[in-house]
Specification:
This protein is mainly alpha-helical. It is 61% helix and 2% strand. It is elongated, with a radius of gyration of 40 Å. InterPro entries: ARM-like, ARM-type_fold, DUF4042, HEAT, HEAT6.
Length: 1182
């Protein structure tokens, strides 16, 4: 007969149901429909507790019963999703309870502390400030009153209360962390109770925990906690403590690592001087290898930055191991070979259980050997060379040498050690992210090897990536390595190994190049050996960071070829994340210093050649094999075809309920894969357009298909691909393009391409008001039409483009409006549109309206477009003539001048183009307009704005443009430079900048502006003319004085511009200028500039180089042209005649002219003598 028992129904039910025990009985569920809801239970118990008073009868019994009821209930929302509570109710409850529980009753104190931890932990409540102060005060008093056996529970409650409340408990921090503070006492290394140490460290961790959007704890307390955590990690394991207990999760070492991570996360950590950083890194490096099997090294207490490397030395010699254990790896390897099959594959897939099956396999060979995968040709035949190379995590649990009980303990110990290593790597990741990267570059050699070495390889992050048995630890190591590589382009840019190596020493550039090569080698090994999909994703992402930052143009070719070949199978991997990361890596390779010859070779390589499986032969052999095959010209790049296939491949989706029916065609690949493939296509088009143009039609069809889909992300990437295609066509047809004409895309094909695109779904994307980002990208694509192709489009298509863009400038979305205004700024430069007065007027009115927009982004784009429009005015003035000037409305020009003046007071990103537009407008205005009264005040305000901008503390680009604008205005002969009141201020500002500005590019433009006026009268009286001369001469003397080394590259351009300006002033000088000019040239100033003038005449020191190319703003003259110009100046000076002058004035001026003429004649003579001497010294060639 079956047994029977009674089950109570509900919390207060007096009725019992008799239930028969049977195998067929309904399983017991703790939260069945007849049980009380946790929210109702909490409200009922909370009401009872709040009704109690300190003088209540049976208070202790009531508290004990209520605490038990609270603690026995499970309040996790995952179990009880319908639970509804207010955090303030929990805080009120706890404040009331702590006032009721007497600290003399240790049993109730313990239960109250358990209640605090239970409620706050399960309900995820961060207490408010009054509750925080009440609970912390109560707990601190309890620690001083209650017995020591209660302290662990009390500290656990304190840790829960402090969670996320570090900055709020400011008045308690001194008692907790000050001198002789409670937490310092409990966390001291001398504390024998490890549990108390652990909980005390947890309290400090929660104090340092940063909550996003809230203030952090004061630096002095954070630094104090940091020191305690580091000391706890550096302290040796107590001799009386068991290794398993010491390493278990939740003990001291884990608590210290968690606290250290909280200290370092979320803030830019500032380390003090000395060895603080090295001590932290040394500690973390030791813990990165915690419990690694077969590892026996002496760890340094401090790591030093290069050039003081630290190497792990061998520890105290141990007795030799028996020979039979040395043969064990070979035996295990043999078993593994026979057991290769389905069981191994099952072990690979179960990543969660993989940590439990970690085996005792040595991380490093004890007898030396190659480093992590290097060929071991020199090893003895009795030593199995594959023991150290075979990945440890591929070994099965059948290799264990322990009994069941021993094996269980060893498995737990290895699991705990793996978690310690994982936590240490998390801390190292926080260090890498929180510390200035330049500080860490010196420690790279401690974590990244530079080259494989004979003997045991150094212990680095790559050792963990290749050898650690835990996939989670390997993934953490890869994350740290990725963070170190991210943003290291400037540091790695020093690497170079293309030059012939010097046997005497190894330069740093060569060592860094070896580091890059070793990273490539080890990460490629990890790519081939990794079995965990999550870790494999991290391997590929790490490779992408490496490829994005390595300077392949300075390295010997061949690094990318094996990676390119081995990566191919992963594009079709079963895991979506792996496929996406593989495409990301391909995208990084085609964007790295594009175009790279090696990548061009790989792109032309057919898909079937050099397959990724065998790896036979060298990458060079595989790459060259197809090149000489029948001399055939390769077609489209295989990567491009692959990405097109990934984007467009579809499958028929058939419903289960409709047998035999065909469903709609859906994409075969998930959205992340398709989006990444579209990005790779865009990178390919940007970097290797000459290869991608073979598939121009197919790429246009891909873009059109993406625009027809319903997914906005796919549509957006389709328009970006279209934008890259248009930009590639424009770049190919620029005047400075090196692509030969036969290799360029035929213009008929370009016109056909854009005709199909503009007749297709792009028009729909432009009008999709519900997706403003798509509209913005479509506007960018519309602005990337080649101007010559636009001219050949049908009139209705041209009109459609213009109409749509003008309409989108009225959009309520600022991004769309900014993109449309920018596109109009591009269209205004088209030859077929810039001479259309109606289009210019419509575009000008639209731009002026956008200049008043509230969005800074819209105003910046409008200012840029206004600058382009005014550039067009100058081009039309020079090409069409006065007809265009007369057709353009005076009032429109006035509005443009006033709007540009107002915009010049805006932010720098608006101002830099507004001042450019002002210079163009001042150059464009005719005499009849300048003399009208309505233009007088706007003209003065415009010049005043330019003068203020030149002298302001704005960005150098703004001041550069302002100087250029003044020079542009000086080109207008109708401007009254000789008589206008603002003229003196304009010249004074340029004279001040040319001598004092720290930026040489601003000096160059100011000197060029001072040399623009074509008439002597424009410079005003003699005083202003001589002031300009002295400023230019002083600037020439100081042309090499700068505190910024980067400015030296502009020295030659600055000197040439200054010398041309001085020669221009001499050519314009008149009779009245001679006394002052003669005195200047005969004095110290003439001596100081004579050498510069001599070198200028002989063409020495005037090589601008690549840095100064195009920076001078003046046309560089040949030596012959310079000499002829000086001779013409001399002739003009000799012909100067004086009429109606007093005798004294005439003698003074004649004397000055003689000095000037003598100076210039001597200059010509010295130049000729030097030229003759150089010719004679060269002599006839033998």
């Amino acid at each position: 007969m079956a047994a029977r028992f009674v089950v109570p129904v509900g919390g207060d039910a007096a009725e019992f149901l008799h239930t028969t025990l049977s195998p067929n009985a309904v399983p017991f569920t703790p939260h069945a429909s007849d049980s009380m809801d946790p929210g109702v239970h909490f409200a009922r118990c909370s009401s009872k507790l709040r009704s109690l008073r300190g003088d209540s009868v049976n208070l202790k019994e009531e508290l004990n019963l209520l605490f038990d009821q609270f603690i026995s209930e499970n309040y996790y929302q995952t179990i009880s999703p319908s639970i509804n509570f207010r955090p303030e109710d929990v805080c009120i409850l706890l404040r009331h309870a702590c006032a009721l529980v007497p600290q003399s009753n240790e049993h109730l104190v313990i239960k109250f502390c358990q209640l605090v931890h239970h409620l706050l932990n399960q309900l995820k409540v961060i207490v408010d400030e009054p509750t925080l102060h009440a609970l912390v005060s109560y707990i601190v008093r309890a620690l001083s009153v209650c017995s020591k056996w209660t302290h662990a529970e009390v500290l656990l409650a304190l840790s829960t209360v402090l969670y996320g409340n570090g900055p709020q408990c400011q008045k308690h921090l001194h008692g907790l962390l000050g001198e002789q503070g409670l937490l310092l006492l409990y966390s001291a290394p001398s504390q024998p109770d490890l549990e108390l140490r652990r909980v005390a460290l947890s309290c400090m961790t929660n104090i340092c925990l940063g909550i996003p959007g809230q203030l952090s704890v004061e630096d002095k307390y954070r630094n104090q906690c940091y020191g305690i955590f580091l000391k706890a990690l550096q302290a040796p394991k107590p001799h009386s403590c068991d290794e398993l207990l010491y390493s278990a999760v939740g003990t001291v070492i884990q608590g210290a690592l968690k606290g250290l991570h909280c200290c370092l996360s979320g803030v830019k950590w500032r380390f003090g001087g000395g060895e603080e950083v090295g001590a932290l890194l040394a500690t973390l490096k030791r813990l990165m290898f915690q419990g690694t099997p077969g590892l026996s090294v002496e760890w340094p207490s401090v790591l030093y930055a290069a050039p003081l490397p630290q190497y792990e030395g061998p520890s105290t010699p141990k007795p030799p191991e028996p020979p039979k254990e040395a043969a064990t790896p070979g035996k295990n390897k043999k078993k593994k070979t026979r057991g290769k099959g389905k069981k191994a594959e099952v072990n690979r897939g179960d990543e969660g259980a993989e940590e439990e099956r970690e085996t005792m396999v040595p991380l490093l060979p004890k007898g030396g050997g190659g480093g992590g995968g290097a060929a071991g040709g020199g090893e003895s035949s009795t030593k199995p060379p594959t023991a150290s190379l075979y990945p440890a995590w591929k070994r099965t649990s059948s290799d264990s040498e322990f009994s069941d009980l021993e094996g269980s303990a060893q498995c737990k110990l290895r699991l705990y050690h793996g978690r310690v290593r994982q936590s240490a790597l998390h801390c190292l990741l926080a260090v890498v992210r929180g510390v200035d990267k330049r500080m860490l570059y010196g420690y790279w050699s401690s974590f990244i090897p530079d080259a494989p070495m004979a003997g045991p390889p150094p212990l680095t992050l790559l050792s963990i990536v290749l050898k650690d048995p835990s996939p989670k630890v390997r993934a953490c190591a890869l994350q740290v390595l990725s963070a170190m590589l991210d943003g290291s382009r400037q540091f790695l840019g020093v690497a170079e190994d293309t030059a012939t190596p010097r046997p005497s020493f190894t330069p740093f550039s060569l060592s860094l190049a070896a580091t890059v090569r070793e990273l490539h080698r080890c990460l490629t090994l990890a790519l081939l050996a990794e079995t965990s999909a999550q870790t494999l994703t991290q391997v590929i992402k790490c490779l992408a960071y490496l490829v994005s930052n390595a300077p392949y143009q300075r390295l010997r070719p061949g690094l990318l070829s094996p990676l390119w070949r081995h990566l191919r199978p992963y594009v079709r991997h079963r895991d979506v994340n792996v496929r996406v990361s593989a495409l990301t890596l391909y995208g990084a390779m085609v964007t790295a210093q594009a175009p790279l010859p090696e990548v061009q070779l790989l792109l032309r390589q057919p898909e079937g050649s050099g397959g990724g499986g065998s790896g036979a032969g060298t990458p060079q052999d595989a790459a060259l094999s197809w090149r000489h095959r029948d001399g055939a010209e390769p077609g489209s790049p295989w990567l491009l075809e692959l990405c097109i296939q990934l984007v467009t491949e579809t499958r028929d989706e058939q419903s289960d309920s409709e047998a035999g029916g065909t469903g709609a065609a859906v994409a075969s690949e998930p959205s992340p894969v398709r989006l990444e493939a579209l990005q790779v296509l865009a990178h390919l088009v940007r970097g290797y357009f000459c290869l991608a143009q073979v598939c121009m039609s197919e790429l246009g069809q891909v873009s059109a298909r993406c625009l027809q889909e319903s997914d906005p992300s796919v549509q957006l990437h389709g328009t970006k691909l279209l934008d890259e295609l248009g930009t590639g066509i424009i770049q190919q047809n620029r005047p400075e393009s090196t692509v030969p004409l036969p290799a360029r895309l035929p213009m008929s094909q370009v016109v056909e391409f854009w005709t199909e695109v503009l007749r297709g779904p792009l028009n729909g994307a432009l009008q999709s008001e519900h997706h403003p980002t798509l509209q913005t990208s479509a506007c960018d694509a519309l602005s990337s039409i080649l101007p010559l192709a636009f001219t050949q489009l049908e009139d209705k298509i041209q009109m459609m483009c213009i109409t749509v863009l003008l309409g989108l400038t009225y959009s309520e979305n600022s991004l769309v409006k900014a993109a449309a205004v920018r596109a109009l700024g591009v269209y205004i430069l088209f030859p077929s549109l810039r001479e259309d007065v109606m289009f210019v007027a419509d575009t000008a009115n639209t731009i002026l309206m956008a200049l008043e927009d509230k969005s800074p982004n819209v105003r910046a784009k409008a200012a840029w477009s206004l600058g382009n429009l005014t550039d067009t005015l100058i081009v039309n003035m020079e090409s069409v003539g006065t007809d265009f000037q007369e057709e353009l409305s005076d009032m429109l020009l006035l509005k443009m001048l006033q709007s540009a003046t107002r915009a010049s007071a805006d932010k720098d990103r608006v101002k830099c183009n507004s001042v450019r537009a002002l210079g163009n407008l001042l150059h464009f205005l005719r005499y009849g307009q300048l003399t009208r009264s309505v233009f007088q005040r706007p003209l003065e305000e415009a010049v005043r704005v330019l003068v203020q901008t030149v002298q302001s503390e704005a960005t150098m680009k703004v001041r550069w443009n302002a100087c250029y604008a003044l020079g542009n205005a000086f080109r207008n002969p109708a401007l009254p430079l000789d008589s206008a009141p603002w003229s003196s201020d304009a010249f004074s500002s340029l004279c001040s900048v040319v001598t004092s500005c720290k930026n040489f590019k601003v000096r160059i433009k100011s000197a060029a502006a001072l040399s623009v006026p074509a008439r002597r009268g424009c410079y005003g009286d003699v005083e202003r003319f001589i002031r300009v001369w002295h400023s230019l001469a002083t600037a020439l003397e100081n042309s090499e004085e700068t505190h910024d080394f980067l400015e030296y590259r502009y020295c030659a351009s600055l000197r040439e511009t200054l010398l041309q300006a001085l020669m221009h002033l001499l050519s314009l000088s008149q009779w009245e200028d001679m006394p002052a000019l003669g005195a200047a040239l005969a004095g110290d100033e003439g001596v100081a500039i004579r050498g510069h003038l001599l070198r200028y005449l002989r063409g020495e020191g005037g090589d601008r180089g690549t840095a100064g190319e195009g920076e001078s703003g003046t046309e560089s003259l040949s030596v012959l042209q310079r000499t002829e110009a000086l001779q013409q100046t001399l002739a003009g000076l000799r012909e100067l005649q004086v009429e109606g002058e007093a005798e004294g004035v005439r003698r003074e001026r004649e004397s000055g002219r003689e000095r000037v003429v003598d100076y210039l004649e001597d200059l010509l003579k010295s130049s000729a003598e030097l030229e003759l001497a150089l010719s004679a010294s060269a002599g006839p060639s033998l």
